[in-house]
Amino acid sequence: xxxxxxxxxxxxxxxxxxxxxxxxxxxxxxxxxxxxxxxxxxxxxxxxxxxxxxxxxxxxxxxxxxxxxxxxxxxxxxxxxxxxxxxxxxxxxxxxxxxxxxxxxxxxxxxxxxxxxxxxxxxxxxxxxxxxxxxxxxxxxxxxxxxxxxxxxxxxxxxxxxxxxxxxxxxxxxxxxxxxxxxxxxxxxxxxxxxxxxxxxxxxxxxxxxxxxxxxxxxxxxxxxxxxxxxxxxxxxxxxxxxxxxxxxxxxxxxxxxxxxxxxxxxxxxxxxxxxxxxxxxxxxxxxxxxxxxxxxxxxxxxxxxxxxxxxxxxxxxxxxxxxxxxxxxxxxxxxxxxxxxxxxxxxxxxxxxxxxxxxxxxxxxxxxxxxxxxxxxxxxxxxxxxxxxxxxxxxxxxxxxxxxxxxxxxxxxxxxxxxxxxxxxxxxxxxxxxxxxxxxxxxxxxxxxxxxxxxxxxxxxxxxxxxxxxxxxxxxxxxxxxxxxxxxxxxxxxxxxxxxxxxxxxxxxxxxxxxxxxxxxxxxxxxxxxxxxxxxxxxxxxxxxxxxxxxxxxxxxxxxxxxxxxxxxxxxxxxxxxxxxxxxxxxxxxxxxxxxxxxxxxxxxxxxxxxxxxxxxxxxxxxxxxxxxxxxxxxxxxxxxxxxxxxxxxxxxxxxxxxxxxxxxxxxxxxxxxxxxxxxxxxxxxxxxxxxxxxxxxxxxxxxxxxxxxxxxxxxxxxxxxxxxxxxxxxxxxxxxxxxxxxxxxxxxx
Length: 751
Fold this sequence. Notes:
45 strands, 10% helix, five-stranded mixed beta sheet
């Protein structure tokens, strides 16, 4: 790990031995900080999907990227991804599945069947290292919209443009405090009840007299300069705001003694202007990003001091500048965004800009660093009809890792800050108003290490309905794979607990666990820990960026189909037959249950159903659908069974007993376990080999979530357009092997 140590001494009059002492002190501060920050190994999950809007009875394709929270390199420590789909309207979970994670990435498909109603949903993903106990805010999610038909989509119900009403107004001094007689920048933020910005203007009053005016400059935020005095009282008067709300605005307290600083970001270096009225003292400035110290500064401060701090080698992102006094207590701090240009540069080149229906398209992706050097990267590529953009989803891989994961609280329109360099001032306002102590990697966060909640494999225990029964002889469980019809044995501990690793989840979507203990009067039960139940019981908040209102129908060119074709809206197939189970193994269990558990047989040689006179050989079993004869009212007359009587005979059609899956599992003392959802490849036709006369309804032309560029930073792909006449969007985003992040959008027309 590389640090930058800077020593600034008043009049440069200190000797070499003092410099060595200061160096040791800086090393000690850094070591103590890293001892806390590096102890909790965590990942952060970013979810992206093939598009933002889906129609019912369609496949939802997604990718989960797991990066180390501190280095942003792919996280390789997790194996199992827990995915659930949450309905925002009623906060219900409509789907839960597990997917395999490989080298920090996972991709999968979810079929949006008829039971999943149209509306807004959150696709949420969790893993062992990304979701801990008492998590609080959780951001491993993606907002999607499900509609019946995109041609009839007219916007999200209940969403309409409205004038925001001010609900909260905050004043936030740069550095964290106002100090008597020291000039400071004060940022302010005005929002409504759900966090949308409100544009305001007003004046600052000193002793009830106006001294300066202010107004918002971006997204309800702005700033002004003030030299406060402890002898004066200050208040805020907002224009066109009710008296009641204005009385609730609290002006920051003014400390009689203290230290302040202002930061000026000049891209290649930071200029820190530090002021104090506490007398001469030694100070320390710590610059850290995601819990890793990038630089340490020590200096002797008397009245004021200017420090120029080089930052060209720092990673891109939010950095925490904390000023420590001589006792290493934080006395001031602020957040600053550094090295906006240090990201992946992704570009795409199409064979041309416009294409016909079912025409071949050649696409080349090129990834370089800031200096134009090729970069090997992990990317996802999606090409889809522009009508399927979610109008209220502002999350990208850049906003997720560079802003949302670094800051507490909701962020309004985060994509705005990554458009170009002209937005640097707006971004600095965001960091001032978001608050120094709202940085995720602040000491309060680092000192609150949280325990893991989830696991990669499966754990459980053997229990008995009769509490007097205890585990004695059988110290193993058997895992059944119904596909290969093989069993695998795993050991129990002395208390009947077990843990099977994640490799068993690769057996398929479902497998079974059984414990054999023939010596027990009561059958043992295999209780399996439910990881999704653990997630449900955690009180966490889904934190998602707020996007400004837009009319979702504006600017959309409606998709045109071939006028000589008609698209089927829905097809339902029905049929009559015996009960179908989720897999062949349960079908076999059903047959066994009817043959063994029922005990039904055909008497030999009489052919009577369950004949009481011929019980010696019961090997002949009844067949469902066949007609049999049985005795009615049969009973033995004497104890030696030498004579009997009956009321008569009846003929009937033999039917199987219909067991539910739960009944079958209980009868055979089996526990069902959900494994990984099998991998499915996204279908893309090749019209050089396939019939081009078939009407092609694809609105997503390509979904390629697991791209790895070559040593030249390149990737090439060919595909065919569909029969939709529309504008198609190309979205590429991903991360390099060294932790740089990038995203690129382009488009082409199909006519």
